[in-house]
Amino acid sequence: MERGASQVNLAFIAMIVAVATIGGFMFGYDSGVINGTQKGLEAAFALGKLGIGINVGAILVGSAIGAFTAGRLADRIGRRNTMIIAAILFLVSALLAGAATSSAIFIFARIIGGFGVGAASVISPVYISEVTPASIRGRLSSVQQVMIITGLTGAFVANYVLAHTAGSSTAILWGGFEAWRWMFWLQAIPAAVYFLALLFIPESPRYLVVKGREAEAEQVLTRLFGAEEAALKVSEIRASLSRDLHKPKLSDLIDKTTGRIRPILWAGIGLAIFQQLVGINVVFYYGATLWEAVGFTEDNALQINILSGVLSIAACLFTITVVDKVGRKPLLLIGSAGMAVTLAIVAYAFSTAVTGPHGGVVLPGHNGLIALISANLYVVFFNMSWGPIMWVMLGEMFPNQIRGSGLAIAGFAQWIANAAISVSFPSLAVTPGLAITYFGYAFFAFISFFFVKAMINETRGRELEAMEG
Fold first, then answer.
1. 348-364, pLDDT tens digit by residue?
2. How far is CA 64 from the centre of its chain?
3. Rounded to an integer, what distance in angstroms lies between the CA atom of residue 236 and that of residue 198?
4. Model pLDDT for residues 34-62, shown as the tens digit of each residue
5. pTM as predicted
6. Alpha-carbon span 109 to 116, nearest angstrom
7. Quick one: 10-201+243-463 is in which CATH superfamily?
């Protein structure tokens, strides 16, 4: 049995993890809501392919800045306070994006939302890792990805219902406003819930120790693990920080002995970038547009998005049950192999596309079905592996002294890669085309397998104070 396991307050831990992962839900909703609004944006702001890419990708610029800033901010003002700021940003962005009267205002609103997404993406996992027992840390940290996918699926369902009710995403719905605007405004409800719920959870005990507030840290740890374990934990955290007798800073990422960037940071950056280079957010951001491009109706395309979301949640739930038994690295390897194969099949199916009788693109024979099944299998492989595991590992793999800084850099890299893939997709889908673009994603999935083999060390069951790098 894990030390002090009998005193663990699982109900309290579950409550604060549930609150923290609302940030994941907001991350998912804010990322997925754009999927069903692109026709509305195109009509309202007279956008071309490049314009759509910029409007869709605006959130990613904000997310990169938000992730980098939040990692540093969390070391200064705390994990909980940083999440509170993110909740406010989500609320402002939702209201402003829906009310936007120009592309410039919309882009500004989405950048604000991106600040919140970036902050939530890196701070929620680290907060969860710092308040949960090592024996179930993987399971509880994986809840973040479940909530991200739930947010995505929630956005897909909301988009479908609103568009279906109005007749289309560009039709007038309530109050004289188009359905696509209500897709953004609906996000204000969970944003407000997130803000209020954060007021009732404690600060991370590891942050409190760093700030010299050990009595407060011990109080929080007592509520989490019991009095005896709390005293031991405070001593262990203090000891893990004693090697660097200063406040955390970015220069801690440089190894004092070699003068080079710590290998653990390269591993974190690699995980973050490869998670995006396999093209997952092309499915989440452009899914409706993608399936319409190969012959599906708007209504069917939005339903396919919902199917992808449900499968994603199921895959994440599977990971929750096995991540602390099987480990992180094996799941990453399985995911890389599965994604490489399924992406290659999708690419092959798209390579057979022909012009239909009405001038649109269609996939002959059963190739449309093959593309659909393979794309959803790809989504399953991603969400049983790289989807949750990347965030689990970034939240736990860095030593205490560099956790905030490491997350800042890795999170920034993740969102820059996300932006590069997402903004480039509309143009790449035309030239060189969907087939070659998806073969490219398959190639990166293939390479990621060997990256994991060489660079990633297993963290299952290890205390955060034992992490090295």
1. 887 887 765 555 566 67
2. 12
3. 27
4. 776 777 777 777 677 677 777 777 777 88
5. 0.71
6. 11
7. MFS general substrate transporter like domains (1.20.1250.20)
